[in-house]
Predict the structure.
Amino acid sequence: MGAQAVSYQLLLQVREGLRLEIGALGPCRLPAGLYVYTGSARRGLEARIARHRRREKPRRWHIDWLTTHPAVEILAVLRSTLPECELNRATAGEIPVPGFGASDCRTGCGAHLKWIGP
């Protein structure tokens, strides 16, 4: 039996530029394009992923403001055995919103959401 996934990435398509008020981050601007969000769940990885896929939910995490927006689609979910921050740092892309998804990050990632292009 192989190693168990401990982290995941959501490949997101943002169909139009967005201006959102995202919790404590405040006003954020996201250009249209492809994004990768990296996350983890200590317990219940599949339940966390299923929650991300639901449009109707309370907004608890930064990513919830994207996954509930009608102009945003989850194109794919990738699971990984790498720890969340290691996987995030290995992912190319630009940080569109400093701190997004990284309020509990202790390794200096800057954000766990990356814009990977139009």
Remarks:
- Residues 7-117 form one domain.
